[in-house]
Specification:
Blueprint: H1 3-13, H2 23-31, H3 34-37, H4 53-65, H5 69-86, H6 90-106, H7 110-126, H8 135-150, H9 154-171, H10 177-192, H11 196-213, H12 221-236, H13 240-256, H14 265-278, H15 282-299, H16 305-323, E1 366-369, H17 387-406, E2 415-418, H18 423-426, E3 443-446, H19 448-463, E4 469-472, E5 477-479, E6 512-515, H20 516-524, H21 535-540, H22 543-550, E7 553-556, H23 561-570, H24 574-602, H25 605-626, H26 629-632, H27 638-649, H28 659-675, H29 687-711, H30 726-730
Parallel strand pairs: 3-6
Antiparallel strand pairs: 1-4, 2-3, 2-7, 4-5
Helix pairs in contact: 1-7, 2-5, 4-5, 5-6, 6-7, 6-8, 7-8, 8-9, 9-10, 10-11, 11-12, 12-13, 12-14, 13-14, 14-15, 15-16, 24-25, 24-29, 25-28, 28-29
Length: 743
């Protein structure tokens, strides 16, 4: 539904204003607003000739600061509307309406708020905002949508959210946290309308944006809140293990950043407790709810719905714990979150396990995986969990405790994770990947100073970690704490026949202890990312190189230094991105639109085949560049190029989502087109049909690219021969550096 239709719909629905406005109550509340009466005129007749928006916002902040919003904010906002309108200040009035929407929503005045929504949309249309991409219009749409969602007007809310998304693509940077907030709000709408699968996608997008914008995601409250929200949504989908991981990760972030006294910490505690309750881990649920109540009482007091709801949840958890015969330690309720399980901890074998460790039910079956010498009797053909999941479990159960025991003074300075070369770092590993360079492994990243002090000994201790593990029927990994069965020092295998190749040994090793600078230099040639003002250096870096430096996961980064360095390689200067888009446009035009059809007409199948290769490479790269690498990552090397492209294309908000499938169709038809179908045993049949289809797809892709360039305001031209689009794109390059411009 477009803006005009929405305005008509609202006008028809609320033509007579809100039907529940209580003038008597409003007047009574106004009598209690003496402290704000000096900041606004007493009535409309005395309204000022001009409206000071900043003074209005300062006055509103003062009301909230002295906790008198319940009686003073309503009259203050109503008078401000009159003042702004009488002063003819449309921008000021729109600001007041946006603030009013938020206040009315917090007070549950939803019917009145629908009238405010109507006024805001009409005013924005009168101001000409609805055809633009300003932040003011984006903010108004989001506030209107959230107000309608709170009023349970879900269809209108969804339309408004989608309009806001379209505007935000142009008005906000890809890593702007307001964009993440929009995804979060939309996820709430999907949750409330029983669409948890869509809610999950929105929350994962929000989490990705927030992590991409954060200097240190391991100590960022917004990242933690996103993990909690995602955990609760996964809970509604009965994805208990994933929900547990995200809920525990949220708590770990608060501990890492020493943020336990933040009011938001209560939400993370209560979210973890809710997950534990669903897992029938009632003792842990009780502990979590008790901690949450302590934080709520400290920050909000007991006389709040927040406290009462959490207290009721605690009561239910205590009742279930008692029925199951579980005992709960009452110590440390005032904030000792250390009693709660850590992020990544293994779930109990039985949900009815009490403090004594006695199982009420038998343990689920497990798959034992040996990581000793090749050919061990227990070895199975493939590890049933992904390399990243195995790495995280190895770190949580073996690496982290080892560091805490042997290097306590450095525990708050060592970063850990799995990044770099290897299929598992991209998340694309499978059973076929495990015949070489696969097994429990992670990286430890140290500063130069710390490496000089403990690097060699830490590497020795890392190599000595037990690597024998089992995986149960639910895919949960358990490592067995005993000495390694082999003393070779070589990396052990995860499955029968797994070998260590030379490219993963010595200077090329993919795991163990590294200096932060050495690690990135081994991948990119740079210890830190090139400067934003050095485009020539960025252009020398292959996208696949940048993908290897920024993939994988960081499990812990107490100081944030590793993440900050890694973030630098993610943050490709936009001028460089635009220059690369221009180069890709040129190659798509030359290889796909010009040389491919000419080679086919000549009957030069080899030249046509190579033209298709160049066209596919350039187009796939352009898709990643248009979607912004900071948000979606870089295109990896050829082996995983299409796996990554399929994953990107499957995202709900992907740009050019159909291109990947079209490219695969071109490749499937290439044998018939280039060699008359000989590759398919067709002899000389079918070439003309395949050629026609490929040419059509190439032109369709070009048309789709032009449409996207227009939507991004990178061109005003409708020319579909993409070489001619390059000057339009390059006009948006701010730098005068000639290396960024085509000849």
């Amino acid at each position: 539904m477009d803006e005009e239709a929405l305005l008509k719909q609202f006008a028809a629905q609320f033509a007579h204003g809100p039907d529940d406005a209580d003038d008597t109550d409003a007047a009574a509340a106004a009598q209690g607003a003496d402290s704000t009466a000096n900041q606004v005129a007493d009535d409309a007749d005395q309204s000022p000739a001009t409206f000071d928006t900043q003074q209005f916002l300062n006055g509103l902040d003062a009301i909230f600061d002295r906790h008198t919003a319940a009686t003073e904010a309503g009259p203050y906002l109503e008078q401000a509307m009159v003042d702004a309108e009488n002063a003819g200040d449309e921008a000021g009035l729109l600001t007041v309406l946006n603030e009013t929407m938020g206040f009315y929503r917090s007070q549950g005045r939803h019917k009145e708020n629908q009238w405010i929504v109507q006024r805001a949309l009409e005013l924005a249309a009168r101001m000409g905002l609805t055809t633009g991409t300003s932040e003011a219009w984006a903010t108004t749409l989001i506030n209107c949508a959230t107000s309608m969602r709170a009023a349970k007007q879900y269809d209108q809310a969804e339309d408004l959210y989608h309009q806001a998304q379209s505007v935000c693509r142009h008005s906000l940077a890809p890593t702007d946290r307001r964009l993440a907030a929009l995804h979060n709000n939309l996820s709430m709408l999907y949750s409330e309308t029983n669409r948890p699968d869509k809610a999950e996608l929105e929350l994962r997008e929000a989490l990705r944006i927030i992590e991409a914008s954060s200097v240190n995601p391991d100590a960022d409250i917004d990242v933690s809140s996103s993990h909690t929200n995602l955990a609760l949504t996964l809970l509604t989908e009965h994805k208990l293990e994933d929900a547990h991981w995200h809920a525990a990760k949220a708590l770990e972030i608060y501990r890492t950043g020493h943020l336990e006294h933040s009011a938001h910490y209560a939400s993370a505690l209560a979210g973890f407790a809710q997950v534990c309750f669903a897992e029938r881990r009632y003792a842990d649920a009780v502990t979590g709810y008790r901690h949450a109540l302590a934080v709520i009482e400290e920050c909000y007091g007991k006389d709040t719905d927040y406290w009462r709801i959490t207290a009721d949840n605690l009561r239910q958890a205590e009742e279930e714990a008692a029925k199951a015969g579980m005992t709960v330690d009452n110590a440390g309720v005032a904030g000792d979150a250390g009693a709660l399980p850590q992020s990544g901890s293994r779930l109990p074998d039985s949900p009815a396990q009490d403090k004594t460790g006695a199982d009420a039910t038998s343990s689920p079956s497990t798959v034992s995986v040996s990581n000793g010498s090749a050919g061990a009797a227990e070895a199975v053909s493939a590890c049933p969990v992904s390399g990243l999941k195995l790495a995280r479990a190895f770190w949580t159960q073996m690496g982290k405790p080892m560091i805490a025991a042997k290097y306590p003074q450095y525990a708050g300075r060592i970063a850990a994770g799995l990044v770099g070369h290897g299929s598992e770092c991209y998340g694309f590993d499978d059973a076929y990947s495990q015949d070489h360079d696969f097994g429990p492994r992670f990286c430890l990243w140290l500063t130069d100073e710390d490496y000089a002090a403990i690097g060699e000994q830490l590497e020795t201790d890392y190599e000595a970690l037990p690597r024998k593990f089992s995986v149960d029927a639910q895919g949960r990994v358990t490592f067995e704490a005993h000495a390694r069965s082999d003393a070779s020092g070589a990396f052990p295998s995860a499955g029968a026949g797994s070998t260590v190749t030379p490219r993963a040994q010595g200077a090329n090793r993919r795991d163990g202890v590294f200096r932060i600078g050495d690690f990135f230099e081994s991948i990119t040639g740079y210890r830190t990312a090139p400067a934003q003002t050095a485009p020539h250096e960025w252009l020398m870096l292959q996208e696949s190189t940048l993908a290897a430096a920024t993939n994988g996961e960081v499990f812990a980064d107490p100081t944030g230094l590793f993440s900050k360095t890694r973030q630098g390689f993610k943050d490709m200067p936009d001028d460089v991105r635009l220059a690369l888009i221009s180069k890709r446009l040129g190659m798509i035009a030359q290889a796909g639109q010009y040389n491919l059809p000419r080679s086919l007409k000549r009957g030069d199948g080899a030249a046509a085949w190579l033209s298709i290769h160049e066209f596919v490479q350039a187009t796939a790269s352009l898709v990643f560049l248009v979607n912004v690498p900071m948000v979606v990552g870089y295109m990896p090397y050829y082996k995983w190029q299409f796996a990554a492209l399929r994953k990107l294309s499957g995202s709900m908000f992907a740009l050019l989502p159909n291109v990947g499938e079209q490219l695969e169709t071109v490749m499937r038809l290439s044998s018939a087109a280039c060699y008359g179908g000989a590759g398919f045993g067709e002899g000389g049949k079918g070439a003309a049909t395949a050629i026609e289809k490929i040419n059509d797809i190439v032109e369709q892709i070009a048309a789709d690219i032009v449409k996207e360039l227009k939507r991004e305001h990178l061109t005003t031209s409708g020319e579909t021969f993409l070489e001619w689009q390059r000057p339009y794109v390059e006009d948006h390059i701010a730098s005068d550096d000639p290396v960024l411009k085509s000849l």
